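Per your request, structure below.
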């Protein structure tokens, strides 16, 4: 298996990492286990102390780190800077809150003393994707290490520089070397290390296919998992929504990160009364986006992360057309070089087409007409995925009534779906299980231990 950084704009190889041998992977994993045994015995204040420095390191080095992200996977540079800043915010959140979240909870029983305490599990294997190479790892790893675990990082093969940089920033902030350890391993090596007693739990962010594969291996070995998988989020537009704000946010949700986000709105379900107006305004806004070199200022959309991924998106569009979907608008003026896919608006999208049923991981928006409010909710729920949904209405009572009817891990009213360190994040159905972030996330990789004294 190769671990290569290929700049998706220039199509040039910029870095290549040598894969670790099985002996090296095992050695790194055992070192992580040994370090964890020391780390867990530190007091919570000692474990949290480097976290504040880590936030500072990220802020100070954000331009360099962001450039690494952009040259590896192609998102516009300002969005990469935002990603690093969000990681710093996460560190600050847990620096301020982890101690209380991990403190013992007294419970009144007939015993002299009864309480719950949170003990670490051990080594957590983190299998991470390329689309938010820092954020996805940080939101899983930071709460895990606060709780006293160590982390073994298996990153996506196309972002080895980001993977190496992550390990370096933790060390630079003063965390013990090896507390977060990077491994360049293939699937067979990962399967072996999951089966090994050295790994206590697994967290994976990735595709449904990857989750199914790793989840089955983990289940076979009775290992705790958190899975954050794909999404096909609905953006539900009701007639009383603020059209101007909703359209602006709809474009941002679908097109940020070059459309490569699990929580991006992908199916835009508009009530028949405002469908035409929404489609016209939405298409106009998308047509104004600037496409080009993601390292340049004022670029809205860069290339897709890899050539094979851009090809897959084009196949999904083609297959959707063959099943009746219509290309309402498409930008044909693309750079001659780079793994670009045109921002595209599809209409006449029905169940049974890839644009309705599948996650299209690129700047492709499906605009769907709903006869009424009930059909809008039915269409939103008609998906194997259940990550998030965005509901747009000025009627607060109506929103309150509809929120329980939407079958997703999160519902955002009059805003886009986004992750926030203060709120739990995760999905249902084929979008995965478990939660990241907030107190819920920090409790995923702990032993919730009941203690009673008589």
């Amino acid at each position: 298996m190769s671990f290569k950084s290929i700049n998706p704009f220039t199509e040039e190889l910029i870095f290549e990492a040598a894969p670790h041998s099985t002996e090296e992977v095992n050695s790194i994993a055992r070192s992580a286990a040994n370090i964890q045994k020391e780390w867990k015995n530190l007091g919570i204040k000692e474990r949290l102390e480097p976290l504040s420095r880590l936030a500072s390191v990220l802020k100070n080095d954000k331009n360099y780190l962001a450039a690494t992200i952009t040259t590896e996977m192609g998102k516009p540079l300002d969005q990469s800077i935002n990603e690093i800043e969000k990681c710093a915010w996460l560190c600050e959140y847990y620096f301020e809150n982890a101690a209380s979240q991990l403190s013992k909870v007294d419970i009144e029983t007939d015993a002299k003393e009864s309480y719950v305490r949170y003990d670490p599990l051990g080594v957590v294997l983190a299998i991470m994707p390329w689309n938010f190479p820092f954020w996805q790892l940080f939101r899983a790893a930071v709460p895990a290490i606060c709780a006293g675990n160590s982390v073994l990082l298996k990153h996506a093969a196309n972002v080895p520089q980001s993977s190496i940089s992550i390990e370096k920033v933790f060390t630079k902030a003063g965390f013990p070397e090896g507390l977060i350890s990077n491994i360049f391993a293939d699937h067979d090596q990962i399967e072996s290390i999951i089966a090994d007693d050295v790994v206590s739990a697994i967290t994976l962010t990735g595709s449904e296919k990857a989750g199914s594969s790793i989840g089955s291996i983990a289940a076979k070995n009775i290992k705790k998992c958190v899975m954050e998988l794909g999404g096909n989020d609905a953006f539900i537009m009701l007639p009383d929504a603020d059209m101007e704000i909703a359209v602006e946010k709809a474009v941002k949700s679908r097109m940020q990160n070059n459309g490569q986000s699990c929580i991006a709105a992908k199916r835009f379900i508009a009530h028949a009364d405002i469908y035409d107006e929404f489609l016209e305004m939405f298409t106009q806004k998308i047509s104004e986006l600037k496409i080009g070199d993601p390292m340049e200022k004022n670029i809205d959309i860069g290339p897709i992360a890899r050539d094979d991924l851009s090809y897959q998106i084009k196949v999904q569009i083609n297959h959707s057309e063959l099943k009746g979907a219509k290309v309402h608008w498409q930008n044909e003026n693309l750079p001659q070089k780079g793994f670009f896919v045109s921002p595209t608006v599809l209409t006449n999208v029905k169940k049974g087409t890839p644009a309705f049923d599948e996650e299209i991981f690129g700047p492709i928006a499906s605009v769907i007409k709903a006869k009424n409010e009930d059909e809008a909710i039915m269409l939103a729920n008609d998906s194997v995925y259940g990550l998030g949904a965005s509901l747009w209405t000025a009627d607060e009572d109506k929103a309150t009534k509809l929120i329980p009817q939407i079958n997703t891990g999160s519902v955002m009213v009059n805003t886009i779906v986004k992750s926030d360190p203060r709120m739990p994040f995760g999905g249902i159905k084929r979008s995965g299980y478990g939660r990241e972030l907030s107190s819920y996330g920090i409790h995923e990789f702990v032993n919730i231990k009941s203690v009673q004294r008589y």
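The mean pLDDT is 98.

Regards,
D.
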